[in-house]
Amino acid sequence: MEICYGPTNASAEALTFLLQSSPAIETLMIRSCGTWSSAGSWNWDLASVESCLHHLKNLYLYGFAGAADDVDFLRFVLKHAIVLESVNLRSKEIDVDENARNVVRGFRRASPKCVVRLQALNVPSLYL
User: Fold this and answer.
1) How many domains does the chain have?
2) Which candidate, 29, 34, 46, 99, has a CA 20 to 30 Å from the CA of 12?
3) Domain range for residue 18?
């Protein structure tokens, strides 16, 4: 399933509803249509999206900027997606912020076999 995510609280609520309505989703692609910005968006109650995260195997985030909301969303998914195999982060920027890479490397992963790739435009993937 692929969605385009905008910079509003309504987008966060819509994404939550989508995940609640798609409990067996295995692949999720999110295209950022602007900076993710919403107070408390990713302070989800795990029970509200847990069934989806127990089936999610692949996550693609296009437009990953390393902003606080990007990072909070990624942290939440990595912490709770128990069968996650791959996370592919695609940045719009030529150079991905080194600090964001270091932060993502330190995130706890519920799935021991999860591989995180971070790729900037026209640059080979970096494994985190």
Assistant:
1) 1
2) 99
3) 2-127
